[in-house]
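call fold(seq) -> tokens
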Amino acid sequence: MDEYTQPKKRILNLSNAGLIVIIVLAILFLATLGTTYYFYQKSHSVVVKDPQKELEQTIKMVSKHLVLPSSEIPTMATVSDPEKLKDQPFFANAKKGDKVLIYANSQKAILYDPEADRIVEVAPINSTTANQAQNAPVVQTTTTNR
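ret:
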């Protein structure tokens, strides 16, 4: 027999069913890989928050626990480094991500924990205290005009 009349040898001796299983597994592997990549990118992306909406949401949540001054819009700050604030009694129980609402005209400051949905501290302020709170280590400070 010459080489043209001999039956060809398969590299992998698979039946049609085995080939289908391999193709399905390859598709599932690629789908899993794509899904993993998508969620990895989503979890590591920077979310740009709308300060106006964040302030409104914080006011809404705090107002469930405390009557807030309705005559003014507060300045909001987010605690970014509570260790730098531990020497101030108002921030003794603060943690990263807590919100501070400062009502300058009403001379009131409110420390709110959005994760636990609770008010951590309420204190009267004077202009010196308000300046200290506004200059505290924060992620952002927001004041809006309606």
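The longest helix spans residues 16-43.
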